[in-house]
Amino acid sequence: MLGHQFKTLRATRRAPSFCRCDRGETHRASVRRQNEECCIERPGQPRLHKGPLLSYLHRITYPPPTPAKRPFLEPCYCLWVLVPQKEEFEHEVPEDLGPLQFVKLRKHHSLVEDAWFCDRITVRGPGACEEAAFPCYRWVQGDGVLCLPEATARLAGNNALDVFQRHREKELKERHKIYRWATWKEGLPLTIAAGSEDDLPANMRFHEEKRLDFEWTLKAGALEMVLKRVYTLLSSWTSLEDFDLIFWGQKSPLAEKVHQCWRDDELFGYQFLNGANPMLLRRCTSLPSRLVLPSGMEELRAQLERELQNGSLFEADFILLDGIPANVIRGEKQYLAAPLVMLKMDPSGKLLPMVIQIQPPSPISPTPPLFLPSDPPLAWLLAKTWVRNSDFQLHQLQYHLLNTHLLAEVIAVATMRCLPGLHPVFKLLMPHIRYTMEINTRARTQLISDGGIFDKAVSTGGGGHVHLLRRALAQLTYRSLCPLDDLADRRLLGTPGALYACDALRLWEITARYVEGIVHLFYHGDDVVKGDPELQAWCREITEVGLRQAQERGFPVSFQSQNQLCHFLTMCVFTCTAQHGAINQGQVPLGHHKEKYFSDPKAKSVLNQFQTDLENLEREITARNEQLDLPYEYLKPSHIENSVTI
């Protein structure tokens, strides 16, 4: 007899449950605990199944038959399992169901929370029929029905009677109710409407493994801090070497290098090119107007002019911090600097500081003091320490929080509101927005909230961080998020020893090739791009709504061509993966996600090529790093997560 084989892959169960048929029939399950078998029967009919099964109810829907064909069937099966929590399940249906369009899942809601997370369902028809995939990656809970369309990506159509068109319209209508915008602080990008992680849609929450890993990391870090505090409680520090008392625990080669060389000018300069924040350095085309050189510094001016003429003069200007109110911690006033650092690149490729100005000129101090490498060692070290303090503020708030986390959240919310699950751009982006809403919600309730960690421990806390974010948003241009444009604007292309720049450009190139491969499968010309209403709505939602009229800063409000769409999507994927990895190390290799949203063999081939390209880049970076005294590993693909999750 011809039939279909159903396979549910990697289903995760929250709690033991029971379910019943939506036709009102009562199914009897006899369970043998020894081998965890269950036997499902329908009243008055032979046994339907025996063996371990997932608890879900499915109905198969396909095009209604013509009068000449057999009557429309809607078979129903109720399946139940005792344990385990994660499993693959198979079930055979004896009928030939014809071409399948949807699988519908439902669970009976019991008094005990018993939701299941289903990855996907695959169906293999009789004979040599191709396997049909139905991605889910959602919780199956409550009394509602999850309607899963077959995985083939489809653009929106004009036929209101088309079952897929009706499905996508209904899906977006429901999503608009679930995924709502909110204002965290006036003048900043919009966020998901959630007062805490418990308010988030269930499908945006951390899975149990992710939650445990995240909370364990926090607790381990807190425990290490407590132990170090206890260890040093009874001893006062009298020299810089006393920092060694707290330099223990998990260490990396980079941490060891910093520990040994943190006072050296060479490492100080290197960090502007390849450190945790490589986004501030730029090559000079003129001497900065804020750099006021008093009389007696003619020799320094001559040196600066000479480096400028040679094209080897660089600057790092922290002017964004000027005037930001400093925090008060435990009754003690904190301080913020807005330094300017002038650096030169010597013939060997080392980037070395020449002069540091701690604060810009002001009416009170029209000629602020300058610090030079020839100053007393501790004075020069203190000036560099103030620079590092300022770099921390911009790194964490502007380049980490705003330019990756908050931007990724805008992309995520707009995607859920504007793109249905059948849309190819939805399928492309979903692995790269996973968990972003929860990690950001946790940050707003624990890290940058009133009374949060920033208020308790950071100089920009107490409200200064919000002022700084508003200033930074004004500088968040579309070009600044695209490495080739950003590095060109900062005149860093081709700079010797710029490892971040080199790796970022390679990753952008690989990501762009991946995005173009997917886009060209579904958009066969510019007219198709311009005529996609869901895509155009998504673009406007990001630029005009989430980013608050960002068209003034170069963001598009519509897509007019394939190239324009590819460039924007590459920016989205790059921001959520590589750029975040460059300033905040990840854990899951880029490109290797378990979610399989595409079923088309050509789309799978594009993803496989993306993974191959990343593996080749990994080998190139590894080989290069073996020749370096200080390897640059932030942008190794194996160190980059697929989304902003930490």
Plain-language structure description:
- It is a single chain.
- By secondary structure, this protein is α+β, with helices and mostly antiparallel strands.
- It has 16 helices and 20 strands.
- It has helices spanning 163-178, 208-231, 253-261, 265-274, 298-310, 377-418, 424-429, 436-447, 453-457, 464-474, 483-489, 499-522, 526-530, 533-546, 562-583, 601-625; strands at residues 4-13, 28-32, 37-41, 47-51, 56-61, 76-79, 86-93, 102-106, 116-124, 131-140, 145-149, 181-182, 191-192, 282-283, 313-317, 328-329, 332-333, 340-345, 351-357, 370-371.
- The strands form six sheets. It has a five-stranded antiparallel sheet with strand order 14-15-18-19-20.
- The longest helix is centred in the middle third of the chain and has 42 residues, at 377-418.
- The radius of gyration is 29 Å and the shape is globular.
The assigned structural class equals alpha+beta
Largest sheet data: 5 strands, antiparallel
Give Rg in angstroms: 29 Å
Helix count, DSSP H or I runs of 4 or more residues? 16
- The best one-word shape is globular
Q: Count the strands?
A: 20
Helix content: 25-40%
Show unreliable segments.
14-84
Largest sheet strand order: 14-15-18-19-20
**Termini gap:** 52 Å
Approximate strand percentage = 15-25%
* Overall average pLDDT: 85
